[in-house]
Amino acid sequence: MRLQDEQLARQLMRLRGDIHQLKIEQTCDLHRRMLSDASCELQERDELSDLLCESPLAASFSLSTPLRLIGVTKMNISSRRFSLC
Question: Which of 47, 54, 71, 80 could make an S-S bridge to 84, C-beta 3.0–4.6 Å?
Fold first, then answer.
């Protein structure tokens, strides 16, 4: 009986380690995909800016990403009135 308990304990510890390793691999894969998406987005943005011949000054006046995420529009930022989409 004691031998079976020890075997089960080892088996459970191995399973716990395997589960932990799988969680780490999934998290790394998710972060890898997020970085890949972000780099592709930046590359597309650079390509578009090259095509549109935007000046560096125009980029400095664009809205920051957090403001766009909450729906602040570019047209009304100079009048200090903010609207949500």
Answer: 71
Q: Is the pTM of this model over 0.70?
A: no
Amino acid at 74: K
Contact indicator for 63, 77 with CB cutoff of 8 Å: yes
The reply to whether 47 and 65 lie within a common domain is no
Q: Between 35 and 84, name the one with better pLDDT.
A: 35
Range of the domain at 48: 2-54
Provide the domain count of the chain: 2
Helices and strands (H and E) in the chain: how many: 3, 0
Q: What is the per-residue pLDDT for 2?
A: 92
- Is residue 42 domain-shared with residue 67, that is, in the same domain? no
Percent of the chain with pLDDT over 90: 33
Cα–Cα distances in angstroms (integers) from residue 34 to residues 9, 37, 39, 41, 82, in the given order: 38, 5, 9, 11, 30
